[in-house]
Amino acid sequence: AQSVTQLDSHVSVSEGTPVLLRCNYSSSYSPSLFWYVQHPNKGLQLLLKYTSAATLVKGINGFEAEFKKSETSFHLTKPSAHMSDAAEYFCVVSDYSSASKIIFGSGTRLSIRP
Amino acid sequence: EAQVTQNPRYLITVTGKKLTVTCSQNMNHEYMSWYRQDPGLGLRQIYYSMNVEVTDKGDVPEGYKVSRKEKRNFPLILESPSPNQTSLYFCASSLALVETDTQYFGPGTRLTVL
Hints:
By secondary structure, chain A is mostly beta strands. Chain A has strands spanning 3-6, 10-14, 19-21, 23-26, 32-38, 44-50, 56-58, 64-68, 73-78, 87-94, 102-104, 108-113. In chain A, strand 10 and strand 11 form a beta hairpin. The N and C termini of chain A lie far apart (41 Å). In chain B, strands 2, 4, 5, 6, 9, 10 and 11 form a seven-stranded mixed sheet that branches. In chain B, strands 1-3-8-7 form a four-stranded antiparallel sheet, with no helix packed on it. In chain B, strand 5 (42-51) and strand 6 (54-57) form a beta hairpin. Chains A and B meet through strand 5 and strand 6 of A and strand 5 of B.
């Protein structure tokens, strides 16, 4: 069975400093992995996705994530945080060979300090 | 503009009073699904549909019904709502049931059952 674990429920960084949001997954297959962002009172929007091509994936707004199969991780990073990055971030694993085809992590709330 | 719309955005109701939340997409997507979002639990899939007249249960289907009579619409029906169905609901669509497909989310419906 597949699962997703977001290791931090809340991350707080200062504006201009790096961001690291951690995600570990388990899947019996070679999954697709996604990061979605949810701004307050908004729906979810795709940040980036890994689909078995390049292991370093670049997304919108300067975010990127690296797929590490040996560590079963897909951490999200950004070199320099901006105030507009404050939001909830969800790591998602998609494995259609599994009964639960799409699994969301519990989310990480990112706060940015001025 | 390509989008997923949901109505209503906010709904307060009482236990046992049937309600329907509508969902519509204008992208000719085959795959549609409903999620509920609860604090600390991320998004959990309620039902999904791979095409017209084809629906299947997700991870938390109890107390919900859906129908897919037209490709663009996928309403969520609560025949007898209960307080434990108080939640934030999202409709989503994607081109097909393919692992790599991006999901497009509606803006959400916040439901309170008293």
